[in-house]
C-alpha cells in the first residue's frame, strides 16, 4: 500500500466554508479575487453563515464585533506578566489563548466574543512587549481600523485600513490547512473553542505553515546586511538542503492566488514607506526561484514586507496571521462540532512483529 505523504490529496471530510478546488480559493462559493476588497466583517459573516449579510445585518454585525474587542481586566493583568517573558510572541500567544479560556465569563463566549478577544489580545501582546499602554477600541470604527490602532497606537489612514483589510480577508480561511485541520481534530472530540484555538495556534507557529512569514523577512534582512547576491544566497541555502521560505505550496503548484494580490499591496506600501529596496530584492529572489525551481511565492512571502511596512517587528508577523485566521478557525470549529464525528484515523504499522516479552528478556 502506497500512503499519500502528509495526507497529500486525501479528502478527509466535507465543508461548506471554503474550497481550493482546481487551485481557486473560494469562501462559501465566492472567489477570493471578488472578495479582496469586501469589508473584513462581511467576510467573517460569510464564513460563519455561508451567505452574505444584508446591509442592516452587516452594520449590526460590525457593531457587535467591535463591541467585543475588549478583555477582562484580570486577563490584561495576567497577560502583562506573561507577555514580558523573553519567549517568542507565538509562544506568548499560545499561553494567552489558553488563558482566555480560563476567565470567569468564558461560559458566555461565542464566536463574536472570541474573535474580539483574540484580536485585542494579539494587539495587547505587542503593546505590552513594547512597554506601551493597552488601548481601547473605538465603537465608531470598524474591526480592521481598530485592530491596526490597537497594535500600532496610531489611527490608520483609510488607504492603510483598506490594505490591511485585504490582508485580513485573504488570510481569513483556507479550507483544511494544517492549523485548521488541527482545530477540527480537537473540535471533533467536542472540546471547547479555546482548546481548539490553542491547538491551532501551536500548528500555525511552525515555519512550514504560518511561521514562514517571519523567516522570509529574516532572509531579506540577511541578504541586505551581508550584501550577498540573492542568487548566491538561494544557491547556498538549497545546496545545504534548506528551503527558501515563502515559496512552494501543497495545493498551488502554479502560483498562490493570494500572493498575486499581496504582491501589489507590498509594492505600493513599500514605495510609500521607503522600503522599495526590500521589494526589489523580493522581485529578484522571486525571478531567480522561478528560473531555478519553478516554485512560486506563497501567501507568506509578501505579507512579510507588508507587516514590516506597518511598523511591526518580524517576531510578531505570525501573530498577525493568527489574528486573520481566527475567523476561519472559528467557522471550522463550529462546523465540526455541529456536523462532524470524532476524527480518529488509522495507521499502517511498520514496526517489528511477533516479539515475545519473556523470551526476549531471558535472552538479554
Ligand atoms: N524551497 C526549496 N525547495 C522547495 C521549497 C522551498 N520553499 N518548497 C518545496 N521545495 C521542493 C522540496 O524540497 C521538494 O523537492 P524534492 O521533490 O526534490 O524533495 C519539492 O519541492 C516538493 O516539496 P514538498 O516540501 O515535498 O511539498 P509539500 O507540498 O510537502 O510542501 C510546503 C509544501 C509549503 C511545506 C513547502 O513548499 C515549503 O516548505 N515551503 C517553505 C515554507 C513556507 O513558505 N511555508 C508557508 C506555506 S503557505
H/E series: EEEHHHHHHHHHHHHHHHHH
Mean pLDDT across the residues is: 96
Shape: globular
- What is the tally of beta strands? 3
CATH level-two architecture of the largest domain:
Orthogonal Bundle
> Helicity, in percent?
55-70%
> Which CATH class of the largest domain?
Mainly Alpha
Which stretches of 5+ consecutive residues score pLDDT under 50? none
Assess the beta-strand content as a share of residues: under 5%
* CATH level 3 topology of the largest domain: Citrate Synthase, domain 1
Looking at CATH, the homologous superfamily of the largest domain is: Citrate Synthase, domain 1
Order the strands across the largest sheet as they lie in space: 1-2-3
Head-to-tail CA distance between termini: 35 Å
Enumerate the distinct ligands. Answer: coenzyme A
How many distinct domains?
A: 2
Number of separate helices = 17
Described by strand count, sense and barrel closure, the largest sheet is: 3 strands, antiparallel
Give a written overview of the molecule.
59% of the residues lie in helices and 2% in strands. The protein is mainly α. It has two domains: 18-205 and 316-339, Citrate Synthase, domain 1 (Orthogonal Bundle); 211-310, Cytochrome p450-Terp, domain 2, CATH 1.10.230.10. The chain has a three-stranded antiparallel sheet with strand order 1-2-3. A hairpin with a 6-residue loop joins β1 (18-19) and β2 (26-27). The chain is globular. The model has no long low-confidence stretch (mean pLDDT 96). The structure holds coenzyme A.
